[in-house]
Each structure stands twice: as structure tokens, then as C-alpha cells.
């Protein structure tokens, strides 16, 4: 970046979980190539794990900022992350984040960003940004289908029927059982309401168009999909891999037996609260019986790299949204075993798209049946064939969504009066986007042919 160039400065506040931090970091990487400058604020323990994932070149446009979350006897600093956090301390972590308002205000005053991006558990962030006359935009790293279901119940009377019954929670999957509390719904509603004009969401319009439309109608905000913000496997070499198969609670034995019965070759990735305890949770003699065709990995595995390998024919997944989008990008059909939070809703969407099948846990070998179906079925109507079609559409689109996001954010900054950007001649004769400040003229974001960026 030339010394005279004026970047769009963005301060990010992801929730204190790497499953949330990672999409923020990937979005920062994508937009940094479009003349944006990012500051990502989090706890020191999360920042320590991020530093090795930002290259020297990226460090020019992506900076890490310590939130200095207050420690307490109940919540020492090593618990300022959801990784390894005992479940009963989750409310304390949210309260500790709420106590960071003075630090958030100080960062806004010191860094003077043009824009703030925040997560759905941070309703105080847009309040502080408004006090400093800085526009703040919510970025949801969950999919549009799951988000629309939860936001429907935040904004609509509970007697109002959700319009997409095919993607909804079953009676046994009430918010309590999925790990969602009433206070989280309050936080989500406040975060959506306080978002300035638009909401960014990790989604594709081609995949979730009707859900994006419903979200916009429901909230009065324009929901803008950012695409996959996918970290390509080749950029992950020689780094600590970011994705892991989530701990599958008491279902480990059921899944292991299903894999064994299916006869398929497999990699089984598990995470245990206690290091070295995985073998004790597997069926007796399992490792010996499957050693010729199966690999059991404790802790971490390079998920995106594995999914990209041509020999992988199916993905047994809890259906976290990032995992679903990685599977689509890599064209690997999904065997869905959802557990909690948004996972059951994502599994229903997977079935609706025809790119996978959810396992009905009936104790009668259904997992093995689904695995064999995914791996062995062929033809135009097979799950693998439909997944290839969706993957092709996603790959062909490339980073078009990121281009639109960049325009939306710059336009928002201009409308808020903070940058002096987007004059009337901001689209040149070649259809490329130019933005100017009072201090310098520069070519900013590029590659917007045939778009009108100023209304």
C-alpha cells in the first residue's frame, strides 16, 4: 500500500470463541485486498492463538488489539475464551465482556475507526460506537436459515408461525436443550436493532436467498451476504489448523460403531476435556478392529485440507455453519449429526438443499446406513451429484459477494459523514470504483464493472 493511500479503518469485536473469531479474521483478509485496514479486538489468550495465523504481509493491514478483559477469582485470564471454558462460567464470561465498555470507548477514541463490525453477543459495542458518531454493523457468522429462525422468535410474537417449517427445531430441540438462553435472544435482538442500516452475514444468496429476504423484511435491515470467506487449504500449510470436529458428548460410541459397521475408510477426529482419554470413550477393541481402514485423531485436524483431498467421499459433521460451508466449497456430501445451538437447523438446510442427510439416532444402525448411502449412491439425484452442482455455483461466483460488501461498507461510511468518500464521479468510464478523500485521490476498490455504487 502506498504511503499516501487512505484506507477504510475498521475496528472488529468478535465474540470470544474461535468459531466466531475465524470468520471475522477471514473477512478482514478478504477486504484488506480492497483497501481496508482492520483492528481485531479480543482477549489476550485468543490473540495469542491468532498471532501465528497472520502473515507478515497481512500484518500491515490486520492489527490485533487487547481488550484487557478484567480478571476475577471466578474468571481468571485463561478463561477469557470459550475454548476449555467450563459451561457454568459462560454467563460470567459474557458479564466480563460487558464490563469492557470503558476499554471499548477508549479504543474508539484512540483508533478513530471509520466503521465498527461486531458480533451478536456484544450489544454494548454499537451503543459505544453511536456515542462516538461511528457507524456500527453487525456481522453474523451463522447462516441465514438458522439466523432467520432465531431472529423470528426475537422479533415476532411467539404465536406467529415461522414461514419455513422444513428448517426449524423439533419439540425435543427447544432452546434450553440446544444451549441457547433467553438472555442470548435479548442480546441478539438488541444487536440487530442497533446495527446501522445493514447486517453482514456469512451466507450465499444462491443457497439461502429466501431466508435472507425474510430477515430483511423481519428486521427492516438490509442483510448482505459475505460469501464463504473460506481459508483455502494451500494458505494453511505450516500453520496450526483452525478447525476441529467438536466434542460429540455421549454419542462417541454410537458414531464409532456406525463407522465400523459401514465398512468405510475414515478419519475420526475427537476432542476430549481430558487429554489422552479418547481411547477410554471408544468401544472396547475398536482401534484394533479398524486399524487397517481408520484413523482416530485426538484434538485437532486440518479439516479444510482433508475435505479438499480427492479421496474423501463424505463428511460426518456436527453441522457447525463453517463446516457446512467448507463442505460445500470442497464438494463433499454431508452425513449430519447435529448436537446443539444452530447445528440442527443447519442440518435441516443441508437436507433441503439435497447435499446431505441427517442421521436419525434410533440405535438401530442408522448411521451406517446413511454413510453407505452417501458414499455409494450414484446418478443425477445422488447427494454427491447435487453437492457437486452447488459447489460449482459457489466456486464460479468467487469473491463477487466480497466486492458488494466493500461497496456497502464504504457507502455506509460516506452516508454517516465520516470519510468524505464517494463523490458523484466515483465510478469512472471503465466501470471501476474510485473513492476520494479531501486529502488524497486514490484508486480504491477495483473490479466493479457495470455497477452503480452511488444512488
TrEMBL record:
UniProt-listed SUPFAM superfamilies: UDP-Glycosyltransferase/glycogen phosphorylase (SSF53756)
Alphabetical list of InterPro entries matching this protein: Glyco_transf_N (IPR058980), UDP_glucos_trans (IPR002213)
Domain (Glycosyltransferase N-terminal): residue spans on this chain: 7-217
Keywords for this protein: Glycosyltransferase, Transferase
Gene3D superfamilies attached to this UniProt entry: Glycogen Phosphorylase B
GO function term, MF aspect, one: UDP-glycosyltransferase activity
Protein's GO biological process: glycoside biosynthetic process
Protein family (similarity comment): Belongs to the UDP-glycosyltransferase family.
PANTHER family attached to this UniProt entry: GLYCOSYLTRANSFERASE
Protein name: Flavanone 7-O-glucoside 2''-O-beta-L-rhamnosyltransferase-like
Originating organism: Dorcoceras hygrometricum
Amino acid at each position: 500500500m502506498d504511503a499516501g493511500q487512505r484506507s477504510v479503518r475498521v475496528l472488529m469485536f468478535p465474540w470470544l470463541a474461535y468459531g466466531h473469531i475465524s470468520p471475522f479474521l477471514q473477512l478482514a483478509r478478504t477486504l484488506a485486498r480492497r483497501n481496508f485496514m482492520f483492528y481485531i479486538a479480543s482477549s489476550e489468550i485468543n490473540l495469542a492463538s491468532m498471532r501465528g495465523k497472520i502473515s507478515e504481509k497481512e500484518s500491515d493491514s490486520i492489527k490485533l488489539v487487547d481488550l484487557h478483559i478484567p480478571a476475577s477469582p471466578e474468571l481468571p485470564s485463561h478463561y477469557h475464551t470459550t475454548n476449555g471454558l467450563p459451561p457454568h462460567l459462560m454467563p460470567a464470561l459474557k458479564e466480563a465482556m460487558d464490563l469492557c465498555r470503558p476499554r471499548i470507548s477508549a479504543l474508539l477514541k484512540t483508533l478513530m475507526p471509520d466503521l465498527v463490525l461486531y458480533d451478536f453477543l456484544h450489544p454494548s459495542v454499537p451503543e459505544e460506537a453511536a456515542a462516538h458518531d461511528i457507524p456500527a454493523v453487525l456481522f453474523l457468522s451463522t447462516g441465514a436459515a438458522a439466523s432467520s429462525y432465531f431472529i423470528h422468535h426475537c422479533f415476532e410474537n411467539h404465536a406467529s408461525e415461522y414461514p419455513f417449517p422444513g428448517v426449524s427445531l423439533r419439540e425435543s430441540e427447544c432452546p434450553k436443550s440446544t444451549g441457547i438462553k433467553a438472555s442470548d435472544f435479548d442480546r441478539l435482538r438488541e444487536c440487530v436493532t442497533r446495527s446501522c442500516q445493514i447486517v453482514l452475514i456469512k451466507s450465499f444468496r444462491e443457497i439461502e436467498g429466501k431466508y435472507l429476504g425474510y430477515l430483511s423484511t423481519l428486521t427492516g435491515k438490509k442483510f448482505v451476504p459475505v460469501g464463504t470467506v473460506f481459508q483455502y487449504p494451500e494458505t494453511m500449510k505450516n500453520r496450526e489448523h483452525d478447525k476441529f470436529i467438536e466434542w460429540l458428548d455421549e454419542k462417541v460410541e454410537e458414531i464409532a460403531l456406525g463407522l465400523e459397521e459401514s465398512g468405510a475408510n475414515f478419519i475420526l477426529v475427537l476432542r476430549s476435556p481430558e487429554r489422552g482419554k479418547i481411547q477410554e470413550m471408544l468401544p472396547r477393541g475398536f482401534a484394533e478392529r479398524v486399524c487397517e481402514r481408520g484413523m482416530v485423531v485426538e484434538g485437532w485436524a486440518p479439516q479444510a485440507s482433508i475435505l479438499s483431498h480427492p479421496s474423501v467421499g463424505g463428511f460426518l459433521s456436527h453441522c457447525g455453519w463453517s463446516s457446512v460451508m467448507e463442505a460445500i466449497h470442497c464438494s463433499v456430501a454431508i452425513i449430519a449429526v447435529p448436537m446443539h445451538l444452530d447445528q440442527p437447523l443447519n442440518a435441516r438446510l443441508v437436507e433441503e438443499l439435497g447435499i446431505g442427510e441427517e442421521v436419525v439416532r434410533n440405535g438401530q444402525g442408522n448411521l451406517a446406513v446413511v454413510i453407505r448411502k452417501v458414499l455409494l449412491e450414484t446418478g443425477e439425484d445422488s447427494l454427491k451429484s447435487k453437492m457437486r452442482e452447488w459447489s460449482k455455483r459457489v466456486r464460479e461466483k468467487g469473491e463477487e459477494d466480497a466486492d458488494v460488501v466493500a461497496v456497502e461498507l464504504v457507502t455506509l461510511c460516506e452516508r454517516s459523514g465520516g470519510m468524505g468518500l464517494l463523490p458523484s464521479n466515483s465510478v469512472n468510464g471503465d466501470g471501476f470504483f474510485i473513492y476520494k478523500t479531501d486529502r488524497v485521490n486514490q484508486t480504491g476498490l477495483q473490479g466493479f464493472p457495470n455497477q452503480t455504487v452511488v444512488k
